[in-house]
């Protein structure tokens, strides 16, 4: 079609809708792809064919023939676009899209086609978005910046809504404040937005001061949000990418004093981080002086205490498994709470375990007197699933790191990582490596990965509870498990070749996004959810193929 204005506006509407939808709605992510597909079809249509049709036939005949002719024009347009897509000069786009082809080829090694078809449906953006964004319209500098403003505004709005959710609701975990998409996917978007703000504020000299101030405030707020709500994956990736970019800029472009200052800054950041984590580790290992050889035998009510002096589990410096009078504690608790001692708390944990840990963290004995000393507010905390006073007295970031240490200690004792996200990953990776060892050549196929993991957990004698027996939580391991050594090699090639061919590793926006997404793949199945795969496919395609100009680092 020659009416480029209509196509351009439809294209821009689709891009804008995508950037707005990413933090909020899987549904509108899909709608934006339909809009962009419409722009692709219109761009591929022949205006001459359409005009000739309307001139040739009477209005009555047009009504009868418009549907079959319309379908023909659509298929012809798609055919033209596919031919354009596979031009030699567009090799980076179709190499990137071949990640989807790899999943199609994996059907040859698949027995569970229901799961395979579901997986192929989720991963469709990897095929569709490179096709659309490499053949339809280009994004000029002015519109690109407007789109980045829109994206930043959407992400900031998402953080504000999440903050309101956290303040207005009783959340047992601050990460539950991300109600639209996974907190990990949301934190990736926050990281992308922060680095976009940094470039615009510090690199662009043609924007007004008030825009710089607003963007700077937005960037600082997003960093603070990651810290306050303890989005650990996003925060760790933010620090790593910031260090990499600062080091690169200093080494390549900085004078000697700048290099020394940046090096000192990086050392300072790393030192503060290490010291902060070390202090939390010391806190969790700190023990209040207790003479285990002279423990009292009974409660004030005359019931015997149970003391396990061999189990040295500690909660907030106090031994957990001493001074336990289970029956007495249960009777006292059931008088104060509608959540039965032998039942579950609001977080789905065993109520008695939560209560024992909470009483221990307060330094109380696990008996009727200890339960009586709890305030009504503390009873409500236990009912919510809060197992330690540390979780309410300390900042969220401290609590998140504290929980990781606690999870690790429990894993060392029980070897059961169930319910503990960091320790569960160790079990996922163990299973992944075992599957790779068994199927290193061809993998298990696109659809059989779920079944393969369940079988491997059983064969390993894993202590993981069935509801936590998930997949690799590492995209590279997942690809290796599904497609073997050659599939893994092609996956890496399809990630690096397009940017290398298009010289986009010198583009600030793409490079920061690329590092963010690669780091996320180390601890997440980034391409196994609609939000994750759409973020990956859209930003890769938009930065690589639709944004022809390069914002030099």
Task: Please describe what this structure looks like.
The chain has helices spanning 4-21, 26-44, 47-56, 59-85, 91-105, 113-122, 124-135, 141-168, 183-203, 209-228, 232-253, 256-285, 326-336, 351-362, 368-373, 376-384, 390-393, 396-414, 421-438, 449-460, 475-501, 508-523, 530-546, and strands at 314-315, 318-319. A hairpin with a 2-residue loop joins strand 1 and strand 2. It is mainly alpha-helical and 553 residues long. 69% of the residues lie in helices and 1% in strands. Strands 1-2 form a two-stranded antiparallel ribbon. The longest helix is centred in the middle third of the chain and has 30 residues, at 256-285. It has a domain at 314-393. The radius of gyration is 28 Å and the shape is elongated. The protein is built from 23 helices and 2 strands.
The portion of residues forming beta strands comes to under 5%
Instruction: Provide the low-confidence segments as ranges.
Output: none
Oligomer: single chain
Rg, alpha carbons: 28 Å
Q: How many DSSP-defined strands?
A: 2
Morphology: elongated
Number of helices: 23
What does the main sheet amount to?
A: 2 strands, antiparallel
Output the strand order for the largest sheet. 1-2
Average pLDDT score? 90
H and E string: HHHHHHHHHHHHEEHHHHHHHHHHH
Structural class: mainly alpha
Portion of residues within helices: 55-70%
Q: For the terminal residues, how far apart are their CA atoms?
A: 37 Å
């Amino acid at each position: 079609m020659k009416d480029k204005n209509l196509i351009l506006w439809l294209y821009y509407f689709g891009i804008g809708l995508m950037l707005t939808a990413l933090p909020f709605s899987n549904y509108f992510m899909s709608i934006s792809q339909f809009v962009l597909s419409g722009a692709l079809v219109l761009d591929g249509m022949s205006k001459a064919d359409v005009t000739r049709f309307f001139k040739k036939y009477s209005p009555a005949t047009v009504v009868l023939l418009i549907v079959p002719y319309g379908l023909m024009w659509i298929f012809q347009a798609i055919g033209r676009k596919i031919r354009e897509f596979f031009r030699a000069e567009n090799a980076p786009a179709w190499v990137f899209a071949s990640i989807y082809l790899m999943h199609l080829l994996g059907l040859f090694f698949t027995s569970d086609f229901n799961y395979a078809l579901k997986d192929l449906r989720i991963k469709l953006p990897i095929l569709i978005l490179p096709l659309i964004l490499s053949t339809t319209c280009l994004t000029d500098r002015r519109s690109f910046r407007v789109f980045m403003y829109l994206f930043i505004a959407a992400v900031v709005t998402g953080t504000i809504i999440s903050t309101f959710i956290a303040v207005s609701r009783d959340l047992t975990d601050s990460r539950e404040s991300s109600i639209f998409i996974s907190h990990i996917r949301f934190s990736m978007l926050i990281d992308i937005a922060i680095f976009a703000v940094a470039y615009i504020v510090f690199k662009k000299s043609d924007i007004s001061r008030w825009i710089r101030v607003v963007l700077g405030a937005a960037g600082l707020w997003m960093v603070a949000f990651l810290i306050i709500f303890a989005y650990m994956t996003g925060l760790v990736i933010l620090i790593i990418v910031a260090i990499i970019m600062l080091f690169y800029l200093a080494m390549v472009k900085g004078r000697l004093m700048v290099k020394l200052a940046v090096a000192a800054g990086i050392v300072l950041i790393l030192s503060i981080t290490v010291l902060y984590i070390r202090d939390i580790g010391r806190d969790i290992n700190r023990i209040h002086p207790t003479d285990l050889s002279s423990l009292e035998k009974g409660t004030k009510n005359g019931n015997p205490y149970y003391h396990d002096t061999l189990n040295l589990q500690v909660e907030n410096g106090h031994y957990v498994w001493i001074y336990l009078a289970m029956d007495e504690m249960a009777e006292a608790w059931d008088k104060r709470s509608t959540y039965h001692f032998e039942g579950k708390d609001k977080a789905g944990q065993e109520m008695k375990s939560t209560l024992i840990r909470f009483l221990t963290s307060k330094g109380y004995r696990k008996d009727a007197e200890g339960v009586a000393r709890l305030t009504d507010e503390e009873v409500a905390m236990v009912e919510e699933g809060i197992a330690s006073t540390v979780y309410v007295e300390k900042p969220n970031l401290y609590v998140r790191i504290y929980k990781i240490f606690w999870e690790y200690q429990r894993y060392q004792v029980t070897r059961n990582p169930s319910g503990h996200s960091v320790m569960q990953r160790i079990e996922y990776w163990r299973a992944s490596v075992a599957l790779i060892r068994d199927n290193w050549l061809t993998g298990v196929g696109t659809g059989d990965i779920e079944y393969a993991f369940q079988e491997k957990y059983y064969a390993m004698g894993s202590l993981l509870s069935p509801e936590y027996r998930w997949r690799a939580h590492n995209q590279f391991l997942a690809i290796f498990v599904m497609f073997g050594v050659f599939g893994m090699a092609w996956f890496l090639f399809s990630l690096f070749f397009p940017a290398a061919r298009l010289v986009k590793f010198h583009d600030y926006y793409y490079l920061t996004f690329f590092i963010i997404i690669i780091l996320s793949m180390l601890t997440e199945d980034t391409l196994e959810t609609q939000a994750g795969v759409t973020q990956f496919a859209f930003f890769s395609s938009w930065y690589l193929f639709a944004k022809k100009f390069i914002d030099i680092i």
